[in-house]
Design goal:
Length: 190
């Protein structure tokens, strides 16, 4: 973010245009088509412009995924732990249903099964969805609401995985009842 604030406004606009175009290509055609040639043509920019920012298809695809899944800015959560976790579960649900997450996940999963280069992209995608919960749990640990021996990444995965499974694997809506049940079961273990 600091780099983005220092760069020239025109450069920022061009990067945004390229990433928006790459997102469109990803959603319409799949991860394999997020190439410098295709994105340059669709964005009406020179290939060298894209290469100036991303040296290859993999880095362009990763930047595209990051742009799509960039964690929202959570409100400053200050406890209690159960309320903060429930708030983050609600935010995850919102991110899943208001962005084209299901389409991207499906495209990445298909490519990751056939091409090792896309496996890191898929892991990044899931990590970006999980990260806000990790931050919430780390804050709770600093406040003393979560035991210091708890692994925040593991705990975040335990909380987020049922929601991702419901939405991405089963293609079902995420109900308040599911979020409450996930939270209640997790709280039994803390």
């Amino acid at each position: 973010m600091e780099h983005e604030q220092r760069e020239n406004p025109r450069t920022r606009r061009v990067r945004r245009l390229i990433l928006e175009t790459a997102i469109t290509v990803l959603l319409e055609s799949g991860a394999q088509d997020v190439t410098v040639a295709i994105v340059a043509h669709r964005a009406d920019v020179a290939r060298t412009t894209i290469y100036r920012h991303w040296p290859d298809q993999q880095s362009l695809l990763l930047a595209t995924i990051q742009a799509m899944t960039k964690p929202h800015q959570s409100p400053q959560l200050a406890g209690p732990l159960a309320e903060d976790v429930r708030t983050e579960l609600d935010h995850l649900r919102t991110r899943l249903v208001t962005r084209e997450v299901r389409s991207v996940f499906g495209a990445l999963a298909g490519h990751a099964a056939q091409n090792d280069e896309f496996q890191s992209s898929q892991r990044l995608f899931v990590s970006e969805l999980t990260q806000p919960m990790v931050h919430t749990l780390e804050a709770a640990k600093r406040r003393g609401e979560l035991a210091t021996d708890r692994d925040c990444l593991l705990e975040a995965n335990l909380l987020v995985s049922p929601v991702l499974h419901q939405y991405l694997a089963l293609c079902e809506d995420i109900s308040d009842q599911l979020l409450d049940e996930v939270l209640d079961r997790w709280l039994l273990t803390t």
